[in-house]
Structure formats: C-alpha cells, structure tokens
Amino acid sequence: LGDDQAGLASFATGGSLDLGLTTDQTALEPAIDALIASGLTCISCGLNAGQGELAANGRSDVNHVIVLLSDGEPTTETPADAQAAADAAKAAGTIIFTIGIGTANPALMESIASDPSFFTSGTEDDLEEIFGEISGRICDDLPDDTPGREVPEFAPLAGLLALGGAVLLVVMRRRR
C-alpha cells in the first residue's frame, strides 16, 4: 500500500470496524479472512463505521474513499436510512464507490455512490476487475508526476472479498 491507507468495516445486523486505517496490506488479508457471513443488512451501519474511522483517524491531505460491497437490500433499516448515511459521508468529502452483487438493489447502490461510481458483479473475476478500475480511478485525480501515483494493488484483495454472501465495507485512502 505504500503511503496509501486502507481499513475494513463490516456490516450485517450492525456495523463494526474490523481494522483501523493502516498502510500494512498484510494486516488486511487476515481481517478479511476473519469475516463471517451472518445477520441481516444494515448498510448505514457499515457506512457510519467506515466514515467514523475516516473522521477520527483520516489525514486531511488525502482523499477519503469508501468502497461499499453489498449483496442485498437493507433489512434492519429503510433505504432512506442507508441513503442518509451515504449523504452525510459525501457531505464530509468522502468519495463512495459501490459494488452490488447478487440481490443488491441497483437503484439504491447507484444513489449511495458518488457519481458515477456504481458497479455490479457476478463473479470473483468481476470483483478483481472492478477493484482494479476503482484503484485506477482513485489515482486519476493525481497529476502524472505525483510521487507514488502508481495504482495501489487493491485488486488482489478482490478474491478475498467473495465470501459467499457476506456484506462488507472497505475503506481506502489515496493521497491527493
């Protein structure tokens, strides 16, 4: 990850911060592997956990980015609750990418995303390609001569994210 930081928040019936922001990619893989698909779907809980970490520990000299991966509809809240959490994060300056898999509500996922940052996925290969594109987009805002501009290697994590219906949130940051 270099100077880039990533963290992991998951959500089901509630949300939790599973790994605070770190530059250590090797810390991400065990955190992702420890996730267990269970519970319902509280998208706002995941968004709030991720945004809370960015607000508490995020640097002011970087872009704050949330990548939301969900396989379903909100079940412990209304879609309006999920939308309100996304709107609050975007109002704080966070860029949100969404990835809908399975039965995710495409209209809701698209409205949660910063425009245009919604993707749908059917396979692990799709996820790897999507994460590669998201990584590239994060770097597109940087001038070509920016030190460390190279695309961060988030794509290899995509295979770890196909957890048989688990819903989770990845929080990433990239220097401005």
Task: Report strand order across the widest sheet.
Answer: 2-1-6-3-4-5
Q: Secondary-structure element sequence?
A: EEHHEHEHEHE
- Biggest β-sheet: count, sense, barrel? 6 strands, mixed
Kindly, what is the distance between the CA atoms of the first and last residues, rounded to a whole number of angstroms?
A: 15 Å
Unreliable stretches: 142-176
Count the E strands: 6
Mean pLDDT: 75
Find the structural class using helix and strand composition. alpha/beta
Short description:
With 176 residues, the chain is α/β, with parallel strands linked by helices. The protein has helices at residues 25-33, 43-57, 79-91, 106-112, 124-140; strands at residues 5-11, 15-22, 62-70, 95-101, 118-121, 168-175.
SSE layout and pairings?
Elements lengths: L4 E7 L3 E8 L2 H9 L9 H15 L4 E9 L8 H13 L3 E7 L4 H7 L5 E4 L2 H17 L27 E8 L1
Parallel strand pairs: 3-4, 4-5
Antiparallel strand pairs: 1-2, 1-6, 3-6
Helix pairs in contact: 2-3
What does this structure look like?
Helix content is 35%, strand content 24%. It has 176 residues and is α/β, with parallel strands linked by helices. Strands 2-1-6-3-4-5 form a six-stranded mixed β-sheet, with helices on both faces. Helix 2 (43-57) runs parallel beside helix 3. The longest helix has 17 residues, at 124-140. The model is unreliable at 142-176 (pLDDT under 50).
